[in-house]
Specification:
The protein has one helix at residues 110-116; strands spanning 6-10, 15-18, 25-30, 33-38, 55-63, 69-71, 74-80, 85-94, 97-100, 120-124. Helix content is 5%, strand content 43%. The chain is mostly beta strands. The chain has 1 helix and 10 strands, in the order E-E-E-E-E-E-E-E-E-H-E. It has a 4-stranded antiparallel beta sheet, with no helix packed on it. A 4-stranded antiparallel beta sheet has the order 9-8-7-10, with no helix packed on it. The radius of gyration is 17 Å and the shape is globular. A hairpin with a 4-residue loop joins strand 1 (6-10) and strand 2.
Length: 138
């Protein structure tokens, strides 16, 4: 069974919030879906003031070549020694599947990641938007 995990990008505080990594951050299933509450940023009346701007990303259930967890929004790099080139791809969720942006035919699963053996997480689109600048394959 795949582990269900989320993270959220807080574009007010410019930080990534991970479920279970900080005792001040709580992820819960609410009426509109997954909700994250950062109890460090609660108004005096007890309401979360930053919920609306969070960008949620789900864990794919997969890891890169170094064992790092892969989430939506991550940027993966593949080094192709034979072509002397590095390819960078953003992980997206489309039509019920995780894919690389711009590569609809790539089946994003652990078998394909292991086959290439060079895929590694080098950042994400929120903390490192410059990673995809000038890339034609994303």
């Amino acid at each position: 069974m795949r582990e269900i995990k989320f993270r959220a990008w807080d574009n007010v505080a410019d930080e990534m919030l991970y479920c279970g990594e900080d005792i001040d951050v709580i992820f819960a299933l609410g009426s509109p879906g997954i909700e994250c509450t950062d109890i460090r940023n609660v108004s005096p009346d007890g309401h979360d003031v930053y919920k609306e701007h969070l960008k949620y990303m789900q864990y794919t259930g997969l890891t890169d070549k170094n064992g790092k967890e892969i989430y939506e929004g991550d940027v993966l790099q593949y080094d192709s020694p034979s072509l002397n080139h590095q390819y960078k791809h953003q992980v997206i969720f489309v039509d019920g599947r995780y894919r690389f942006s711009g590569m609809n035919d790539f089946v994003f699963n652990q078998m394909n990641l292991n086959y290439k053996r060079g895929y590694k997480v080098i950042g994400n689109i929120y903390e490192n938007p410059e990673l995809l600048e000038g890339e034609s394959n994303v």
